[in-house]
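Consider this today:
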Amino acid sequence: MTTTRWIYLSCQVAAVVCILAAHCPAAGNEIADMIVQAHADGKTEVTIPPGIYTSSNYGVNLKDIGNLTVNGDGVTLLAGIGISLTRCHDMTFSGFTLDQSPLQFTQGTISAVSPPNGPAAAWIEFKVDAGYPQFPVTFKPTSIGIFDPESHQWKRGVPDLYAKDVQTIDADTARLHLASFPDGIVNVKVGDSIVLKSSGISGISVNQCDNLTFKDITLFHSGILVSQSGRGMVLDHITIARGPRPEGATRDRLLAALSDGVHYANSRFGPTIENCDFGFQGDDGVNLHGPTLALVGFEPPRTAWVAYRIKDPLDQLVQPGDMLRCMDPNTYSVMQELTIATIEREQQDLPEALAILRKAIDNKGLDNAFVFKVTIEESLDDLPLGVVCDIPQLNCPNFVIRNNVFHDNRGRGLRIDASDGVIEHNRIERTKMAGIALGPEYPFWGEAGWVTNVQIIGNHLTDINTYSTTAVNGWPDGGAISVGVKLPITWDKKLSSTTTVPSGNRKIVIRGNVIDRAALNGIYINAASDVLVEDNKMRETNYYQAAGRDRHLYRLNIGKGIDVTNSKQVVLKNNQIERNKAKPQAKRR
């Protein structure tokens, strides 16, 4: 993922901490009490009385509950995290509406923009809309979204912007000093609409659960976070949409979820997502991935120590026989595939582990490195410290994403690092980056891994890559449907002409998709092998006349509607391209 990601929450609290707001009829803990009592009584179904329930922290926080259907028709829950589940199983939640008050973003109208003195000095001044949080805001502001004042959609051709500092002028006005960005302020004008948001928390948080179904639920403020979970996760008829106007507001909300619509991580099985409508997320519609580790120590012949940036219990997730895949930290070409015999959490972290992990995943800002001792079946090669590793069985395999609508994302419609899945018959519209992106993002965010055996069939993508650049934060989104890999390169750290990019994504089928209006290619294949691209229709591709302007980062070949780079055994068959506007680019060597 390429911007502020979900904050992982351990959800270890046994009791529900809720505060009753004076204007609401009930507190969120009343819902939890009803569910716990129904479980204790051996019931299989409980209906929550309609009404507005409010909590300043968790709305419904449950642990170790199972075999229960919870009906929430007519229930609106205003909470930081609406529904939090830990070690729950065989449950269905339906009918709830989840929102948050106060909002964790504010919005307004740009009143001034810095003169073009370079990105280091850039700033934006704006006035807050009536009814939205005033300055100083209570949340920690991170990223900025620019919206068209007429259409209220993400403004085209505007790069990601981040607030380095917020200077309060008065309660209604602030000046945002921007973090340095190579493009500076592009296509941002006085009168544009603006959002200043926090990194976001989840409306629904799921941790170490099995066989859960969420159905007919609406989220107005945040998305869904699932981590360390097993089989049977179903999301059916879930809506993520911009919520009602706050009290005193005269303008509608510009943003729905602060970050991803669904962020699904570090799990042995992926989700089934069907019949959903996700719109106006601050990042990707769906993001599936596993953990990226670094080798921080080893003791021949069969003991290694690996570090992870997040305090997830990998020792409880990994099973004997799982693979520890060791890769070159510069290209992620596979160096060795090892079979895990045992894994255990080290009680004392290795002092040098954090420095090694920071370097391995190219993230100097990491604060933690959680270390695990791994014994393996084979003899270790003499691998250098800092080798990047992942565990494919934890990369959320076996997923289904079918018959959904994903639209108006700041990031991608679908950001998939998982294998053995189907993406079919979805509608994807107006994404700033790729509509569907397959392939790992090992550096910085540490999201694994290489993708194998995925079918992309019968999807309809419209108005894709509205940011109109091939390398957003170094991730090569060269097409509306993109297959690739993010490497540890930036605008000032380009891919060497002698570097061989591995064809690590394998067995991909892209068939029968329709792509209408893509700023860049319709389909772009990079770092892949054994790919079939068949019976796809593309109309009006590469309409952005500077398409591929960042292609030098990856030695990309962009411009023909369908292009292939750093790949082998790619079959193009019976594809139709109409009104491809850009001239084919010469391949850089």
The longest helix spans residues 28-40. The chain has four domains: 26-102+201-283, 105-197, 289-394, 399-580.
